[in-house]
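Re: beginner question about structure tokens

> Can someone show what the tokenized structure looks like for a real chain? I only ever see the sequence side.

Sure, here's an example I had lying around. Input first:
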Amino acid sequence: MPTHEALEDIFNEGLKLRREVLGVEYVDKSLANANDFTMAFRRITTEWCWGYAWGRPGLDRRTRSLLNLVMLTALNRAAEIKLHVRGAINNGLTADEIKEALLLATVYCGIPAGLDAFKAANEVLTEMGLIPAKIPAADAKVP
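And the corresponding structure tokens:
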């Protein structure tokens, strides 16, 4: 089993990476709102997901974000998709790249999962001002 110091190092590296991808405000609020019970989950998420899996070499952050969005679509986790769309933008993905990843996930995961993923991503991308809320009626065309 890893030493306490080794786990602390993994946690700290994960915390740094998590803040860079998801934003300092979100991560710090999440930690500040934790109690003894939920802090165990925050630690394991920060250590395993961020310190270990996201911190490994071999894939860049853009690729990890694309994979994450596709997996979250397969799992139908709209709240996490919203969070990770912001992270994907922070990692340099464009709205069009996110759209293409979600379209591919829709084909393999099904229309209901794709619909929820598109709704979640659309809400975040619109809120961030990266896509328009609506297509003006005069410009509306089916692609």
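Each token stands for a local structural state, so reading them left to right follows the chain. The chain has two domains: 1-57, 59-133.
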